[in-house]
Amino acid sequence: MSKKIQSVLSVALILLCGLCLFTSCSSQKLDFFTNIGDSLDPVAKLVRAMHGWIGNYGWTVVVFTVFLKVVMLPLDFWQRYASRKATLKNKKMQPLLAAIDKRYGANTQRSQEEKAKLYKKNGGSGMGGMCLPMIVSMAVFFVMFGGLRDYSNYLTVKTFKELSHTYYDTCLTEFRNDPDHSFDADIADFDASYAEAKAKDDSEDNATLKVKMDFVTSIIKKSDGNATLSEKTTAAAQVAIAAVQQKYGEIRESWLWIQNVGQPDTWQPIMPSFNDSGDSNSFATIVNKDSFSGGKELYNTIRNAVLQTGGYGANGSWNGLLILPILSIALSFLSMFISQKIENRNRKGDDTPQVDSETMKQQQMTNKSMMIIMPLMMAYFGFLYTGAFAIYMVCNYTISILSTVALRTPVEKAVIKSLEKQEQKDNSGKASYMR
User: Fold this and answer.
1) pLDDT class of 133 with cuts at 50, 70, 90
2) How far is CA 92 from the centre of its chain?
3) In this predicted structure, what is the pLDDT of residue 3?
4) What is the Cα–Cα distance from 72 to 78, expressed in whole angstroms?
5) What is the pLDDT of residue 92?
6) Helix crossing, 131-176 with 57-71: angle to 10°?
7) Which residues neighbour 299 within 8 Å (Cβ) at sequence distance 6 or greater?
8) 243-250 mean pLDDT
9) Higher pLDDT, 119 or 406
10) CA dihedral 355, 360, 366, 372 (to 10 degrees)
11) 3-state DSSP assignment of residue 428
12) Of 51, 50, 48, which Cα lies nearest the Cα of 36?
């Protein structure tokens, strides 16, 4: 394959990866008081369906990754088969390639053209059949990143909405049970507004939540300056906070040592801060603030209650122990290391000469670059983004390592059988021609 074509394919791969990264990183903000599930992308919707069946987000990602690897197994086998077959064909063509170099000498362009013709005629490849699988793998990588990040954001908002309902419902119960009936008139107005909102939208997550929020906020404002009412609203809030903590213990999405799969497996807090600064994990970057005006105080109240439920670190707010990010880095390196070891072992076991030095140098440079780039990329995603994607990376690389070892012998047998069949066909054709 000519350098020009290789350059075009490399640029295409970079552009595709950049496009996937852009589309996966630029997630749409959610409107807090609407049906947030409608805005999920296809991968996130599929994960949500599996999550509803399995029940735990972390194990859902594990099962989804295994399912995805099984679906892509034929492509994986074909990539290994095509690469190995092309390598053996290239080696068998080495005498002809050497003759081309000797014939055209310093005329590099003509030499490359003749080599391209030879590759085309004999079914070899200067790239070893790696371009398409690499592009597909990178596309899947970024699509999975976007889907898992999208669904993790959805769960963050969904969890907060459920905790908000718990908080407000508990406050309402306390107000209704007030022995002095201090809030009866306000509750009557609330019941009317709630019934009207319920008639317009039967979703408990939408208009009715806003009615509850507005009502409790108005009660708190009304109690300002009134010591008796302030004492009652404060007591109601304390009971509500305890109810929120209990509810969070029931609905939290933990997995093994990770407190919240939606957050990174690092020293990040269990629940993201509201933070208006544009932090990639903050609640303000997930939800449209215009639809959530005045809710920052509520968010911080519920978040503080959640952080007291326990975690790691000095103040018990750490979400994880850095295990998944470190594992993803190590496994990405190990996966490439094992693949290269097997490839080098295959070369040593071949009786045919090595492929031309120019292609070898290019492949070695690519391998060295990937050994550096991929672990750095894993570190970036593992430390900064959702723990769900870190679980995906660890499972993905673990399965890849196992399949690399397991498929080596079947691939080698299939390649040898194919080459023998092709050789028999060629010999049969030559015999027919001689007759």
Assistant:
1) low
2) 42
3) 47
4) 10
5) 73
6) 160
7) 160, 274, 283
8) 94
9) 406
10) 120
11) helix
12) 48
